[in-house]
Amino acid sequence: MNRMRKLLAAGLAAVTVLSWGALPAWADGESPGKEEVIYINLDNAGDVSSVSVVNIFDLAQAGRIVDHGAYTSVRNMTGTEPVTLAGETVTIQAGPGRVYYEGVLPEAKVPWLFDIRYFLDDQELSATDIAGRSGELEIRLSIKKNPACTGHFFANYALQASLTLDGDMCRNIDAPGATAANVGGDRQLTYTVLPGKGADIVVRAQVTDFAMDPIAINGVPLTLDVEVDDDALMEKVSELTGAVGTLNEGAEALSGGAADLRTGAAELTAGTGAVRSGAQELESGAASLESGAYQFQSGLNALAEQSAGLTGGAQAVKDGLAQLQQTLAGASFSPEQIAQVQQGAADMTTTLETMKAGVDGLQAGLDAAMGITQLDDLIAGNQAAIDGLSGYVSFFSDLQKVIDVLTLDNDVLGGLASLSGGLTTLSDGMTQLQNGFTAFSEAVGQAAGSLGALPDEMQTLKTAVDALAAGALDLDAGVAAYTDGVARLQSNFGAITGGAASLAAGSEDLAYGAGSLNEGATALSEGVAALGEGAGQMAEGTAEMVRQTDGMEGKIQEQIDKMLSGVNGGSEPVTSFVSSRNRDVAAVQFVIRTPPIEKPAPSMTEPAAETQPDFWDKLKDLF
Questions:
Q1: Pairing mode, if any, of strands 186-193 and 179-183?
Q2: Residue 601: in which H helix or E strand, if any?
Q3: Segment 36-57, tens digit of pLDDT
Q4: Which backbone phi and psi does 411 adopt, to 5 degrees?
Q5: What is the CATH number of domain 2-105?
Q6: For labeling, which of 165, 215, 479, 545 is most exposed (least CB within 10 Å)?
Q7: Is residue 214 a contact partner of residue 163, using CB atoms and an 8 Å limit?
Q8: What is the Cα–Cα distance from 505 to 591, expressed in whole angstroms?
Q9: CA distances in angstroms from 581 to 89, 101, 547, listed in the order given
Q10: In whole angstroms, what is the distance from residue 262 CA to residue 274 CA?
Q11: What angle do CA 267, 269, 272 make, to 5 degrees?
């Protein structure tokens, strides 16, 4: 009997080691209570064919065991003491030590549903039909929760499923998700199914004369010795939340800066718009200036053409006076001669008046075309624009062209101011010359009247003629100065005309550049507006991140605990699989297996090969 107990204990220990691992070892003097090992036999399709329970008790001293279960039969696996089954109550009178008894359950509902299918060359076959066949094998094992089974076993227990393929029969084995190991000539495939999880296992292989050992599945509470460095992890989480806060502060600062930049961009757009408008006005004014300059040049050319006549007329006046002097010197003056002198003086006066009106017309035309009285304001405005734009050349290189055009504009406007001054001087000279000729004409008239009334006053007329001759010399000098001024003005105004043309061309380029600058500033303003909107959205997002990460340490700790709880199968107390009346249950373990797939027996004409009992058969033979 003692030898039998030792063999049984060794056999059970081997079962648990081979199936999952040793049952819990208990300290001396500590009662582990009852343990249950549920043996579930499946057919090759995965349906439950039978369920038996091995109940284990560890007694410190002899006594009576009372247990419960809806068994159809029971038997003592340790000794010869009788096991009594009355309804669902089992009693055993046993001595000290470990006591084992087996109970058979009818139609027990196990925690898992198993479905096993076999395919050969893509054709589904039963395990019986596939035995001894060759081809491309595929085994599909499905594990799901059995909703008809009560208790926490599915949620709290992990499964380990093992398939063993003979290396001589199976080649090119493909088993995704399996832990594969060579055991002698066999290939052992092991799958771990965590608590509360199902599985869909697929194994493929090229087989010859196929046969396979039983599929072994074992279920135990899963407890992993997992150490999580909470302090280090929480420190990193704190760093993360701090970084999120810093990021939020930066995003808010960026949003504020973008708002300021948007305001500045709007001001820049408005400023470039004003520059664009001014450039367009300058373009229009430059075109008018160019047109007026060419008209003025034409007038100067016409005036210059008249200078020769004026010079000739002045010379004729001087020659006439000289002739009059000679005539008076002879003391013989006829009324006809005096009338000719008087008419010549009147003609000269009319000519001078026409010339004076032409000069005044030129001055008025220049004033009207260019607003000469405002030239200083235009020059000052251009200089202010040059000073203002110079600070932005480093950002917009095209602004230098605008500055160059404005500088040329000021040079031309300065020339126009000088021209205006020259025309004023010429007008003043013409006025003086006209006044002189008027005095001369009056003197000739007086002389003519005196000669007609008083022939004896000839000497007085001679004296007046001498004075007119002297005045004619001054007139001749004035005409010379006038014609010389017209010539110089005509020569110098050519540069003004060219400058006006350059200004017109430059102002056109300026208007185009100002338009491009305004368009660029508008695009910049739009881009800055988009940047501001994006920065605002970013600030909102980082603020939301701050809200979401608030209390993250506690949330992460909770998730870690939840994850480990799921891996370990929860913390619910162990309950009996057999009966809720069994209160003191220390452990429950499931041992599940299918029949082997065996090749068909040889024909009757051939001697049958001796079948060697496997471990399971040897274990049964012990009882």
A1: antiparallel
A2: none
A3: 999 999 999 999 999 999 999 9
A4: -60, -45
A5: 2.60.40
A6: 545
A7: no
A8: 101
A9: 10, 18, 51
A10: 18
A11: 110
pLDDT at residue 108, rounded to an integer: 85
Closest by Cα among 592, 429, 607 to 39: 592
Spatial separation of the C-alpha atoms in residues 133 and 597, rounded to whole Å: 11
CB atoms within 10 A of CB 558: 10
List the strands of the sheet with 89-94, edge to edge.
63-68, 89-94, 83-86
Indicate the angle between helix axes 230-329 and 335-370, nearest 10 degrees.
Answer: 180
The residues with which 343 forms a beta bridge, in sequence order, are none
Residue-by-residue DSSP string for 232-257? HHHHHHHHHHHHHHHHHHHHHHHHHH
- Collect all residues with Cβ–Cβ distance below 8 Å to 21 and sequence separation of at least 6: 220
Q: Domain boundaries in the chain?
A: 2-105, 246-547
pLDDT score of 462 more than 60: yes
The CA distances from residue 482 to 86, 357, 359, in Å, are 153, 14, 11
Residue pair 517/396 in contact (Cβ under 8 Å)? The answer is: yes
Task: Give the strand order in the sheet containing 123-125.
Answer: 123-125, 112-120, 135-145, 199-207, 170-174
> What count of other Cβ atoms lies within 10 Å of the Cβ of residue 149?
15
The count of residues in the chain is: 623
**Average pLDDT value for residue range 373-391:** 78
In whole angstroms, how far apart are CA 520 and each of 5, 164, 268, 447, 533?
98, 76, 10, 80, 20
Cα gap 84→76, rounded to integer Å = 10
Contacts of 356 (CB under 8 A, 6+ apart): 427, 430, 431, 434
- Supply the DSSP symbol for 504: H
- Alpha-carbon distance 472 to 474, whole Å? 5
Distance (Å, whole) CA 587 – CA 573? 10
Candidates 426, 477, 436; CA nearest to 303 is 426
Paired with 143 in beta bridges are 114, 199
pLDDT tens track for 496-522: 677 667 767 766 776 787 788 788 888
> What number is the average pLDDT over the span 81-93?
94
25 C-beta neighbours (distance < 10 Å), count: 6
Question: Nearest 10 degrees: CA dihedral of 455, 461, 462, 464?
Answer: 180
Task: Report the predicted TM-score, pTM, of the whole model to 2 decimal places.
Answer: 0.46
Per-residue tokens: 315: 């010379």
In 3D, which of 181, 193, 189, 197 has the Cα closest to residue 219? 193
N-terminal to C-terminal alpha carbon distance within the chain: 12
| pLDDT tens readout for residues 131-158 | 999 999 999 999 999 999 988 899 999 9
Place of tokens 């090119």: 172
- 8 Å CB contact between 547 and 6: no
